[in-house]
Amino acid sequence: MKIKEIVSALERFAPLPLQDGFDNAGLQIGLTDAEATGALLCLDVTESVIDEAVAMGYNLIISHHPLIFKGYKSITGKDYVERCILKAIKNDIVIYSAHTNLDNAPGGVNFKIAEKIGLKNVRVLEPKENNLVKLVTFVPAAQADAVRNALFTMGCGHIGNYDSCSYNLEGEGTFRAQEGSNPFCGNIGELHHEKEIRIETILPAYKKGEAIRTLLAVHPYE
Known about the structure:
alpha/beta
């Protein structure tokens, strides 16, 4: 398994947009195309942690607290952070941190703490602002169910304890396909009328790219 596959799995569970504004979670050091030889987990990255990874032959360290919080104008080894950076690069070790994004993720650190102390009906008390976006698409009536279900499967339409939430409105769309097009319905050069469904649903902002890819893959139109 490549390191980037592990990073992708971590970010699916704890997306980086969930981190707080002061944070610097995510990839800290290194290139992720290499095959993973092992992963060392830690709370803080220290020189001894990197030494342990080197001794064990592991090329990935996953920490909770980020090693790097601020920008550096030089790396000379004047403090332990700079020494860790130098040592990790010298030994081709990737450092990845999952901090407040892991704290805030559903099923993450805070949810687990609540579970351990016996809290019930756990929910987010202060949801992040601007975390939801609305997706609107127009689909031929016969294909509306397939498009909706694909969007729901990838994570659209979750509101509280409900899923598969959407608003749907019947109408009629028109278009004229031009030369060089490959229309799903209608003929090139002719005005076409199609019974369509306007589908509206919501999704977390960090899933916008995935939603667009899903929509392009399943929608019948060009």
